[in-house]
Amino acid sequence: MDQETAKKLLVEGGTFVFLGVPQETQFGIDMQCWNTDEDFRGIKMIPPGLHYIHYSAANSGTGDVSSRSGFMHYFHKKEFLVKMWDKKMEDISKEEVSEESIQRLKDNMFNLDRHLGPYPYNIWQKWKLLSSQITAELAAKLSPESGIIRASVDLISMSDADRPRGVKSEDVVETKDNESPTKEQSKEEPSAGQSAKRARRVTREEREDAMLPDLKPAPGMSMRFTEIPRDKYPPGSTPEEITKHYLDQSYTLEFMIAQHDEPLHIIGELQFAYLCFLIGHSLEAFEHWKNLVILICSCDDAIHKYRSVFFHFIRTIEIQIEEMPEGFLADIVMNKNLVYKKLREFFRTAYVSKVDGRLLTMIERFKENLTEKLQWDFTGLDTDDDDERPVVVKLDEAE
Description:
Blueprint: H1 3-12, E1 14-19, E2 26-29, E3 32-35, E4 42-46, E5 49-56, E6 69-75, E7 80-86, E8 91-92, H2 99-107, H3 109-112, E9 116-118, H4 124-130, H5 136-142, E10 149-150, E11 155-157, H6 183-186, H7 204-211, E12 215-217, H8 239-247, H9 250-258, H10 265-278, H11 283-296, H12 301-305, H13 307-323, H14 326-335, H15 338-353, H16 357-374
Parallel strand pairs: 1-7, 4-9
Antiparallel strand pairs: 1-4, 2-3, 2-5, 5-6, 6-10, 7-8, 11-12
C-alpha cells in the first residue's frame, strides 16, 4: 500500500490479538488465509468496518485440518480486540480476556507489534464491495446466538415431541414399489359436492427417511437467516390471486423486506449468506443465498417499487459471481441450473416491464458481462423457453 494509507491505518486501524494459537493453524481475515508460525499473535492495521475472522485447527501429527469456524466483527477506529485459543477444545476460547490483561498488551505494544501481521490491503476494495450492505447490527442478527459461524454445525437428537415421524395413515395409502392401490382402497368415490383426500403411495425414500434418526443443530449454533415463507400469497387469496403471486413473487419479497429495519438489509442478508459460504464454507448459507437470488429474480412489480434494492442486487451478484468457486460456476454453466434460469427470467422481466434509466443500464451491462465472461446464453428473452411455458390442462366436462 502507499505510504499515506499505511500511516493512516497505523493511526486509525484496528488490532486483533489472538493469543495461544498453535503453529500451522489456518488463520485468516476476510478473503485472505495463512498458516500461522510460532511467533504469530494477530493482525494489525485493520481498516475500520466489518471484517470476517476465521480459523481452522490443524493436527500437527497427521496434517489434517478441521472444518472452518469464524465470526464477523465491526472494527471501530483504533479498536484493540483480544481473544484466546482454547487448547483443550481446539477452538477460540469462550472466556473473555480481562481488562487488566488487555491493558498490559497495549502497554507492551512495542514488543507485540513485530508479532502482528499487517492487514492484506490488496483485498480491501473487493471486500468492501462484497460486504457493502452488512451493518454490524445485521451481522449480529443473522449470526448464530453463539456468535461463531461454523462450516460444520454440531447436531443433537430431537426430542420425541419435536420429532415428526412419517406421514399420517389417514392421509396416505402405503403400497409397495410399482404397485397401485387395491380396488378396496379406491372403490369409494366421493359424491357430488363432497371433498375427499386423495390417497397416495408412500415412496421407498419416505419409508427409509422415516427410519433415520432426526437431528437438529445444537442450541445457539444454527444461522438465523430470515425464513422465506412457504406460501407465496396472502391468506385468503383466490385461486387466480395464488397463481399471480407464484408468477410474480413481489409479495414474498416485500414480506421478507418487512422483517428487516430497512429494505437494503435484504441485500445485506444476501451478502452475509454468500460470505458465510465463500469464506465460512457453510453449505447452509449457500442454499439460503441461492434461494434469495431465485426469489429476487422472480419479482415483477417490486422492480419498480424497490429500485434501490434491485440496483444493489445487480452490483452485489455481479461481484459475487466473479468470486464464485469454479466448481459451482461449472455446475451453473453445464447444467443450466436454477440460478441461470432465474437470471434469464430476471432479464426477461426487465425487458417486459420496461425498466429504464440507470437500472436498465446496469442490467444490460451485467447481462453482457455474463455472456462475455461465462458464455451464458441470454438470447431470445422475448420468447419463453420450452420448459418455462405455462402448462395448459384441459379438464373433462362433468357429465
